[in-house]
Design brief:
The complex is a heterodimer of chains A (356) and B (262). Chain A has twelve helices and 15 strands. By secondary structure, chain A is of the alpha/beta class. Chain A has two domains: 129 residues, 3-Layer(aba) Sandwich (Rossmann fold); 221 residues, Dihydrodipicolinate Reductase, domain 2. In chain A, the strands form two sheets. In chain A, strands 9-10-11-8-12-13-14-15 form an eight-stranded mixed beta sheet. In chain A, a hairpin with a 2-residue loop joins strand 10 and strand 11. In chain A, helix 1 packs parallel to helix 8, helix 4 packs parallel to helix 5 and helix 5 packs antiparallel against helix 12. Chain A starts with a strand and ends with a helix. Chain B has two domains: 121 residues, NAD(P)-binding Rossmann-like Domain (Rossmann fold, 3-Layer(aba) Sandwich); 123 residues, 2-Layer Sandwich (Dihydrodipicolinate Reductase, domain 2), CATH 3.30.360. Classes of the chains: A alpha/beta (356), B alpha/beta (262). The interface between A and B is medium-sized, with 36 and 33 residues.
């Protein structure tokens, strides 16, 4: 840890996983936050990728999680590895006694993994932030401070995501090294549809499910009304929980025109948030709170939720109180899993029914 | 003929204002004068009221915001009498939907998802809103397959269907006073799609139809005419040409989708 121009400490960052998310999101974001962070260590299973990405920040590199966690210059750990490694790496980072951990969403893939994280976080007191960037978007946060009773009164929530392939925006954010290859699934195979729906919820809808949950006080009665696969990649899911109607839409194709909206409606108030697309540093969302006679707008502000989540990490590493406890993050995960599993089943059944 | 006389049994401001906006085509019938055209409110019993108008010798009938009723007897009587029956539907009658229909038709084969949202005032009857919503959607998409209502309650509804190419479609209704009432329709394709926003018929704000493709986005010309006036102009065209509109048959197909065969 070193000092910055304002006398506060600059936090050393270690990043586990140096794929496109690290390259296109976190490295550019951290370069904008030089007064708070300095990248000290990059780990990747591919040594050449680790070396190249580390060189961009003058950091050390390795191919070992243990080596990164043992690096004394690493104060905070960002986990950007494939989903299946998240839980064990979060736990290891907590046990290594770092100041704070940022984990890309989802931070676990099942309830048992989430429970393990809860125990590790409680035992060590290390704060964990899940990289659901929209929850840290300044326009979302500004709306949150003004939306009054909307979370209690909302009866309809909608999340809509229309995006081109990630590479379109990755290439606008950085020069990507070693992009993973993609193969077109055979969607006549029910297993491929099942996987696409599950992956769609846990990899794409997961961005906004923490936002949805702000308007859904409980979800024990969650019921999937429909779940359908959208080609080539996407989903259309309708569900009910706690008396609310929740609609999730996503379509990823080759369109140049992205749209990423979150909406909540009550009888007398509504929230609409238009988010900027992933990867690019395109400023914050624009949020609007409406009633019959008034509209209040928030944003766009100059930074987005990626920067917001790192700023939150710095605050927590400095001893700030968490805005949300680990239990709440685990509830977010349970909510996502409660949607993903039955949606995958329903979409598969729908496909097989349509074929019958 | 200089103009068609109108008997306004609907008694709606919209009818008076609309007829007044077409002064060369229509005028209010004088007391005791047999009107060429009858305006009928689409409240329960509207088919009986329209049948009486047919019996009274009406050459044309405009039904304002019809609710779901069995239209078979009316259709039969109107055809036999040569009476043109135009249904003035809340969103479906917006003049912008003609362009939307064409834009959607050119995209429909490549569609991957249809997502449509209707907003109406809190306290509205959700079944009525769904009927109005579905009318607007099928106007531009053609009939939907496997339509089923997943949820319908005091705050809105969700209905699922399939497009002709089997892509998933959903119609959602939200009852809220917080945003202007209207319909949005988004037909997504791999390279873009078509987005349509349809406003309320109470004023002449235009529908917006945007077609998005790889080379950019096209906003179709905006038409500052209310759905009501478009309906009356359409009736005028039929009366002048001596043709009969297919509104009742279309409405019957629509309501059959929602209620099952009668």
């Amino acid at each position: 840890m070193t000092g910055n121009s304002t006398g506060t400490e600059i936090l050393g960052v270690g990043i586990i996983g140096a794929g496109p998310v690290t390259q296109a999101i976190h490295m550019p974001t951290l370069s904008r936050l030089g007064d708070l962070f300095a990248v000290r260590h990059i780990m990747d299973a591919d040594p050449s990728v680790a070396e190249s990405v580390a060189a961009r920040a003058g950091a050390r590199h390795s191919s070992s999680v243990e080596e990164l966690l043992a690096d004394p210059e690493v104060d905070v750990v960002a986990i950007c590895s494939p989903h299946r490694f998240h839980a064990e790496q979060v736990i290891a980072a907590c046990r290594a006694g770092r100041k704070a951990v940022l984990c890309e969403k989802p931070f676990a893939m099942n309830a048992a993994e989430a429970a393990g994280i809860l125990v590790a976080a409680k035992d060590t007191g290390v704060p964990v932030v899940v990289g659901a960037m929209h929850a840290f978007d300044p326009a979302w946060l500004a709306a949150e401070s003004h939306w009054g009773t909307l979370p209690e009164t909302a009866h309809t929530i909608r999340s809509t995501i229309v995006l081109p392939p990630n590479s379109r925006f990755e290439d606008a954010a950085t020069e990507v090294l070693a992009r993973p290859g993609l193969t077109a699934p055979d969607y006549s195979d029910p297993a491929a549809v099942r996987s696409a729906l599950h992956g769609g919820i846990m990899g794409l809808a997961i961005h906004d499910l923490p936002l949805v949950r702000r308007f859904v006080p409980h979800f024990e009665d969650l019921e999937i009304l429909q779940a359908r696969h959208v080609r080539p990649f996407g989903y259309l899911v309708s569900l009910r929980a706690a008396g609310r109607s929740i609609e999730l839409r996503a379509a990823m194709g080759n369109t140049w025109k992205p749209a990423w909206t979150f909406e909540a409606f009550s009888d007398d108030a509504a929230l609409r948030v238009d988010f900027s697309p992933s990867y690019v540093q395109a400023g914050s969302a624009a949020a609007t709170l409406s009633t019959a006679n008034e509209r209040r707008s928030f944003g766009p502000y100059g930074h987005n939720g990626y920067e917001g989540e790192w700023r939150e990490l710095a605050r927590l590493a400095g001893g700030g109180a968490p805005r949300r406890g680990t239990e709440s993050l685990i509830d977010d995960l349970a909510f996502a899993l409660a949607i993903a599993e039955p949606s995958a089943e329903a979409a598969t059944a729908e496909l097989m029914g349509a074929d019958a | 003929m200089s103009s068609y006389t109108v008997n306004d049994t609907a008694g709606a401001t919209a009818v008076r204002a609309t007829v007044a906006s077409l002064p060369l085509s229509f005028r209010a019938a004088d007391p005791g004068e047999t009107a060429h055209v009858h305006a009928v409110a689409g409240t329960p019993g509207w088919t009986a009221a329209a049948l009486r108008a047919v019996d009274d010798g009406a050459r044309g009938i405009v039904v304002v915001a019809p609710c779901v009723e069995d239209t078979s007897a009316l259709a039969e009587a109107a055809e036999a009498a040569g009476t043109a029956v135009v249904l003035d539907l809340r969103w479906e009658s917006n003049p912008g939907l003609a362009g939307a229909e064409e834009a959607v038709r050119s995209t429909a084969g490549r569609a991957v998802m249809l997502d449509s949202l209707a907003v109406s005032a809190a306290g509205s009857d959700p079944g009525t809103v769904l009927t109005e919503h579905l009318a607007a959607v099928v106007r531009v998409t053609g009939s939907l397959d496997a339509l089923r209502i997943l949820h319908l309650g005091p705050h809105g509804y969700t209905a699922a269907a399939r497009l002709a190419n089997a892509a998933p479609a959903t119609l959602q209704g939200v009852l809220s006073n917080a945003v202007p009432a209207g319909v949005e329709l988004h037909l997504h394709s791999d390279d873009g799609g078509v987005s349509v926003t349809v406003p309320e018929p109470s004023a002449a704000w235009p529908a917006e139809v945007r077609a998005t493709a790889s080379q950019g986005e096209l906003l179709l010309p905006t038409l500052y005419e209310t759905a009501h006036r478009n309906s009356w102009r359409r009736l005028k065209d039929h009366l002048d040409a001596g043709t009969l509109p297919a509104d009742l048959a279309g409405f019957a197909r629509l309501t059959e989708q929602l209620t099952g065969p009668s």
